[in-house]
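TOKENISED FOLD:
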Amino acid sequence: VQLQASGGGLVQAGGSLRLSCAASGFIPSTAPMGWYRQASGKERELVARIASSGEASYSDSVKGRFTISRDIRKKMLYLQMADLKPEDTAVYYCKGYARGYDHWGQGTQVTVSS
């Protein structure tokens, strides 16, 4: 299983970014997946996840601003981020669950300037 995250970058506060995660290998197209982030000096935290059913859930800090979605046919996971804040600055990781294990992508840096 391989997960390749992309789409990070530098954006001003109030701006938007869309992260993408391409999944390949032995991972079902409807596998539970999620986005996590880790800011410098802090622990990795859940941002959003999507269940096999397609049900999405979010952390309180991003609810109403971020949207997780997936393209089952392409095995792609997305995170649309809007109204970005400096505190959203972090390395963002995608995670997928397959064959009894969590699999992580390599991370993509998101930096929000004030």
The radius of gyration is 13 Å. The chain has a mean pLDDT of 96.
